Amino acid sequence: MIDEDFARIRAQRNNIHRYRRLLKTQLSELERQFIERRLSEESSALEALTSKTFPIAFAMPPRRPAPANVGAAP
């Protein structure tokens, strides 16, 4: 199951890179709209698959500024 998910993630990433490369070329407006829609769909599918495959996300606690007297001479 994990191997299949990794293969799908890899395929979707490759598709996203391909669509981004295509968007840098000269396209008709219809072609551009199609590729942008496919890029959006692939990005959403990739996000859903990665969140399912890697469900644990670690959030870093917000950084607190150091107290003003740290490192000051007494």
Shape: flat
| H/E topology pattern | HH
Level of helix content?
Answer: 55-70%
SS element count, helices: 2
Structural class: mainly alpha
Name the average pLDDT. Answer: 85
Main beta sheet strand tally, sense and closure = none
Q: How many domains make up the 3D coordinates?
A: 1
What does the radius of gyration come to?
A: 21 Å
N→C terminal distance: 61 Å
Low-confidence stretches: none
Describe this structure in words.
With 74 residues, the chain is an all-alpha fold. The protein is built from 2 helices and no strands. Helix 1 (2-23) runs antiparallel to helix 2. The protein is flat and about 60 Å long.
What labels would you give this structure?
single chain; 74 residues; mainly alpha; 64% helix
Topology:
Layout: H1 2-23, H2 29-53
